[in-house]
Amino acid sequence: MNTKHPKKIAIIGLPGSGKSTFASKLGKILNIPVHHLDRHMFEPGGKKRDKQEFIKVQKAMLEETCWVVEGCSFSTFEMRFAKADVVIYFHFSRFVCFWRFVKRLFNYEREYGGLRAINRELLKYTWNFDREKRARIEELREKYSQTDFLIFRNQKDADLFLTRLLNSR
Questions:
Q1: Which helix (H) or strand (E) holds 69?
Q2: Do 90 and 11 contact (CB within 8 A), yes or no?
Q3: What is the average per-residue pLDDT within 15-24?
Q4: In terms of pTM, does the model score above 0.85?
Q5: What is the DSSP letter of 49?
Q6: Where is average pLDDT lowest: 9-13, 71-75, 92-96?
Q7: What is the dihedral of CA 50, 54, 60, 62, to 10 degrees?
Q8: For 134-151, how does the pLDDT look when each residue is reduced to its tens digit (9 = 90+)?
Q9: For residues 142 and 76, what is the distance between their CA atoms, to the nearest angstrom?
């Protein structure tokens, strides 16, 4: 990474890969605000928020002096990529993500991000994520080459990053 302690971090990746948990831990270590896009994208009851309202909320987040923003809203991904010091891509195995969906079904009340159901759309989105999103991710990596881009392929990569960050303090 170019900066010892980044102040603006965008986290993307497959559903179920652990972005939300990682973002919360990272925010605590760096003592900076964490924004979970799903909390702003959906209204209570699961109804999707108006797109313009969602964009407005996200722009306000990105104007803060420091932040961790996690989520897979690819329609607004460039906004985050353009402002981030670091983009972290959780590129975990689809099967790991599917297993985590099953585990989250039983933890709905205990943790944020619990699932009420696993549906065909979620499975299809997760299965096709890399194939459908890779070109756009690469395009933005080239366009914003000043932004550090890290790929975590498994939980060990994510845990090692946090450990190194803690040890560098």
A1: strand 67-70
A2: yes
A3: 93
A4: yes
A5: P
A6: 71-75
A7: -160
A8: 999 999 999 999 999 999
A9: 17
